[in-house]
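FIELD: query
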Amino acid sequence: MREKWSSRSAFILAAIGSAVGLGNAWRFPGLAAKYGGGAFLFVYLIAMLVVGIPLLMMEISVARYTRQGAPGSMRAMNKKTEGIGWLAVSNGIGISIYYAAVFAWVILMFFMSYKFMGLTGDTEGASNLWATTIKTTGTTVGFTTISWPVVGCLLLAWVLCYVCIRNGTTTVGKVVKFTVSLPVICLLIMAVRGIMMPGAMSGFAKLFIPDWSALSNSNLWVDAIGQVFYSLSTSMAIMFAYGSFLDEETNIVVDTIIIAFSDMFISILAGIVMFTTMAGVGMLDNMSASGIATAFIIYPQAIVKISSSPVFNMIFAFIFYFCLITLAIDSLFSIIEGISTAVSDKFKLNKKKTTLTICIIEGVISLIYVTGAGLAVLDIVDYFINSYTLIITGVLEMIAAGWFFKTTKILDELNRNTNKFKMPYWWFIPSIKIVSPLILIGLFVWNIYNLFKGGGIYGAADGYTLRANIIFGWIVALLILCSGFIVKGIVRIKKAHGFTEDERTWDDLKK
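FIELD: result
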């Protein structure tokens, strides 16, 4: 019998925890600062309504009906589209491996927060604290340099991840009660402190007062749509897995809207923290859309200037990095849950053992990020997955649901338990079939344009060698795109030894 969420709140909190991650805390405020504050929020809201919510609803509702992870859900709609589900799983594998490294860096900074007590006013020392400890070379040639403190934190990150999901929905449901509520409490504490700082109102003004002229900047639209797409954890198998554990009586429409707007609320709350704090210390113009730079270089500079009290600054640092830990942990274990669900469903494996095996294998691979070249490798891998394979997966998911399946069946499943508010046909169907695919295709084309504009095949960032971009960019992307064929080959081999796969379609699964 398939596991289920213990309660409606357990699912909602788990989905919010998955959606709300480090990107909400550092990338969202940076993009808002870059693109006219309120103008970016306006486009972000439109993108949430047009692209984010319909895609999220589609993944969850299909998974609830099929009781399968991403590959099984896609296969149920059309046998030829199972590979799209493995694309989503492979995205999750690539992301979780480097996300664990970032999580390890956050844990490291939490443990080192006591050092802020001796850095009051020393912005240069604060900005160097992280880079010095992880021993980054800034290039892909520093593989022989290893930061042992980061190794220890990376091991802790994977242990925490496994402990949180070792018993599936049972442990996840218990953990998310804390990992979702604690970062909100931390953000509220930091927001109160930020608002009390002199000059905080200028931060509020920059965040919420729109610079409407920014709407003419095409990059604003691209980044706002991208932030929604990445933030909601779609196209990486998570929501398929979580949806497959839902009770038959779940009101998916209402729950999805709660999840999406909770994600947006926490992003704005993080924005208030960042804008008021940076304004209060006179660094409002120093904000960056780079999450790594914000969390580990820029914000530490702000922390040492928050007050003249070394103890207060140290406590504030502990709170900030504890907040990031709670944001990171549920995002990481949610991705692993999506991968584990897909693999155990397909090959009829023990879920707990599958989860442990995945954590061990990915943990070994993630050691590449504890070397001096780790940051450079992460930059390249992150760029290629987020700019290409994630978007391709999202487009293919919607094309499969909109053009290779009767989309009204998904809408019927979506509205099955909804009385007061139903997802309208005019909102859901056009979004899945036409609007969202076109928008994401446009986003993909724009990324390709910037790729060749910025240096051709070099890709991720100028300065990295062609060899590095081929190995960690193009080859990783190619492996993800070929993942469906790889799994198909494995299944063919296993069938020769007596394995039988589940070939039921949507109609076969009728209640």
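FIELD: remark
Residues 13-509 form a domain with the Amino acid/polyamine transporter I fold (CATH 1.20.1740).
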